[in-house]
Amino acid sequence: MSFSKTLSKRFLIIPILLSSLLIENVEANVKVPSIFGSNMVLQRNQKNPVWGWAEAGEKVVVTIAGQSHSTTADANGNWQVILNPLSVGAPHQLIITGKNRITLKNVLVGEVWLCSGQSNMAMRVNSSDDADIERLTANYPKIRLITIPNVGIQEPQKDFVGEWSVCTPATAGNFSAVGYFFGRQLHQTIDVPIGLIDNSWGGSAAEAWVRRDLFKTDERYTPLLQKWEGIEKNMDENVKKFKAAVEEWEKNGKSGRRPRDPRGLLTGNSRPGNLYNGKLNPIIGYGIRGAIWYQGESNASRAYQYRHLFPLMIQNWRDVWKQGDFPFYWVQLADFYEESPEPVERNWAELREAQTMTMNKLHNTGEAVIIDIGEAHDIHPKNKQDVGKRLARLALKNEYGVNIASRSPILKSFTKKENKITVTFDHVGTGMDTFDVRTPIGFAIAGEDKKFVWASAKIVARNKIEVWSDSVKEPVSVRYGWAQNPVCNVQSKEGLPLTPFRTDEWPGVTVDAK
Questions:
Q1: Cα 135 from chain centroid (whole Å)
Q2: Is the dihedral of CA 158, 161, 167, 173 positive or negative?
Q3: DSSP-derived secondary structure for 322-381
């Protein structure tokens, strides 16, 4: 057996053993995965599946709130029942009976949201602004929290180690800050129990959250798969090189960073399918209202690819969840890095564009723009309160019928007259406005030579801005907020920042990245 196969088995042994033990030990006991537990929240007003394992042929009965559902475990020991829709009310007990009896206590019915992405979703309340006073006031007995541990693997996992907890000052601090502030705003506004599932992993790439076989049906992903197939195939050689590099590093007095062990790539958060199998699969099908997402930094160097990769991921999740086109809301990347003195091409601008384009490709999606609350020297901006609120606006407006502004202004059209371009926007609320100074800033303009210069701008109507530069006599394109860390100040009067945009389709810096 090759070293790579042996290595793969060694890295996979713990998750596989967890799954195998789960199945082998069901001879006398009915079991459910950890997503079902005391203190959980079930999604209200819809049918909810409950599933688990038992001895083949064993009768299983599930009861809750006067309902009783029975089934028989199949030849592989799998069983599932579907609960009838439940309404918000007093806490329930969910009882599962086979040869043994499981009683799940303090079960609430309300709204359940999946919170996923990379480090800016994983970042905890403890690391956010005003963490000390946020913890002091985090006493919400009807908000429930659960975090899925990080497992990267190619084999679909059936369970995880974790449990639901009641939101208290002691538990909130270690939960996703964006998830918590989003859920808190929902709870305070619609006054129903909220269940939050934190399923994020810092630094994760979008392709890791997609079922791997889907990439094989689209030739655009051939280079991506070939890259990973090469890593997997050549692991023996890569480990030899790693060991030699470590020896050299030690001979040199351990100067600089220690060489990175390539074996971690196999169980890491970038390998296609790894997080779909290790983190998502154990909870697929659990009743949810929708999902919020904060990710993209790890894919910024391949922003054009993200144009189709991100919609593919969302559709993959919707297809396997079998709950229709559930709402999916994401956070557009914040401002980061040093400010540029002149207009330049940047991959983060292209990634933001790819995120925005997804709203036109998939129904029931939305974007929270935070181009105004990032930090130049911290990829993890601490103001997660406003991030949660902007996501909550989308959910409150679209899912719960609350009459509030929810979307940032966004490019609709543009027209040229003489040396000026007038840009028209949708979703402007009660009108366009500026922050801090009266003059709109953040616009650049170019002619056919594609050389952008900073432009003057003026709000000329509630949804229109006029843009020009005396140095560009025949303008053809306008851009706004098109930088890693743009200096820009346009927003709606409700305080939602204008979505960065460009009116041209000129090839960007990541157009050929695979």
A1: 24
A2: negative
A3: TS-S--EEEEPPPP-SPPPSS----HHHHHHHHHHHGGGTSSSEEEE--TTS-BTTBSS-
Look at the pTM and tell me if it is higher than 0.85.
Answer: yes
Tokens matching residue 183:
């859920």
Rounded Cα distance, 446 and 465, in Å: 16
β-sheet bridge partners, residue 165: 145
For 118-154, b/e burial (b = at least 16 CB within 10 A) is bbbbbbbbeebeebeebbeebebebbbbbbbebbbbb
Residue with tokens 């040199």: 252
Q: Where do the H-state alpha helices sit in 215-289?
A: 222-233, 235-251, 274-275
- Per residue in 82-134, pLDDT tens? 999 999 999 999 999 999 999 999 999 999 999 999 999 999 999 999 999 99
Instruction: Give tens-digit pLDDT for 339-368.
Output: 999 999 999 999 999 999 999 999 999 999
Q: Compute the Cα dihedral for 221, 227, 228, 232 and give only its sign.
A: positive
Q: How many residues does the chain have?
A: 514
In whole angstroms, what is the distance from residue 61 CA to residue 204 CA? 39
Q: DSSP string of 105-141?
A: EEEEEEEEEEEEESHHHH-BGGGSTTHHHHHHT--EE
Alpha-carbon separation of residue 492 from 33, 385, 389, 402, 478 (angstroms): 45, 19, 16, 18, 19
pLDDT digits (tens, 9 = 90+) for 150-203: 999 999 999 999 999 999 999 999 999 999 999 999 999 999 999 999 999 999
Amino acid at position 361, single letter: K
Say how many C-beta atoms besides its own lie within 10 A of residue 83's C-beta.
21
Positive or negative CA dihedral for 85, 87, 88, 92?
A: negative
Q: How do residues 467-502 score in pLDDT, each as one tens digit? A: 999 999 999 999 999 999 999 999 999 999 999 999
CATH class name, domain 22-108:
mainly beta
Looking at 3.40.50.150, 2.60.120.400, 3.30.70.3400, 3.40.50.1110, the CATH number of the domain 111-214+272-398 comes to: 3.40.50.1110
Provide CB contacts within 8 A for 215, sequence distance 6+. Answer: 207, 221, 224, 225, 272
Q: Compute the distance between CA of residue 436 and CA of residue 226 in angstroms, rounded to an integer.
A: 50
Task: Report how many helices (DSSP H) and strands (DSSP E) the chain contains, helices first.
Answer: 10, 23
Does an H or E element contain 12, and which?
helix 3-24
Using the 8-state DSSP alphabet, how is residue 259 labeled?
P
Q: What is the pLDDT of residue 28?
A: 56
